[in-house]
Amino acid sequence: MSVLTDPNARHVPLRGAPGQLVVAPSGDAVLSVELPKLPEGKTYEAWVADPDVRPAGVFTGRTTKLRVRVPRGAQVMVSIERSGGVDAPTTTPIVSARA
Fold first, then answer.
1. pTM surpassing 0.70?
2. Which of 25, 38, 52, 66 lies deepest, with the highest CB count within 10 Å?
């Protein structure tokens, strides 16, 4: 993941869990976090709000590259959703960061 090694990337601490959001000048972004394993049928889903909320990918709670670019000032969030993901958050975000 070249974003993590980009010397010009911004490293933003997460709220709600240990870890960081790493954003390259291009807007490519990685969530570096370790969240607890979820029960069967649930997944973590990342979101980017700028101002519209867009799905940025489902993941297992480990480091993941976001599917959408993250502009400066956007809010990045993680919620717990049903497996496969959803079109809009259905639960309160448990992790967030302002890019």
1. yes
2. 66
Strand order in the sheet with 19-23: 10-13, 19-23, 29-33, 64-65
What domains are defined for the chain?
A: 2-98 (2.60.40)
- Tokens encoding 66: 């976001």
- Quick one: tokens of 50? 């700028």
Residue identified by tokens 């974003």 is 3
CA–CA distance, 24 with 4 (Å, rounded to integer): 8
The helix or strand, by DSSP H or E, that contains position 3, with its residue range, turns out to be helix 2-5
3-state per-residue secondary structure call for the chain: CHHHHCCCCEEEECECCCEEEEECCCCCEEEEECCCCCCCCEEEEEEEECCCEEEEEEECCCCEECCCCCCCCCEEEEEEEECCCCCCCCCCCCEEEEC
Residue 57 has pLDDT above 90, yes or no: yes
In this predicted structure, what is the pLDDT of residue 21? 98
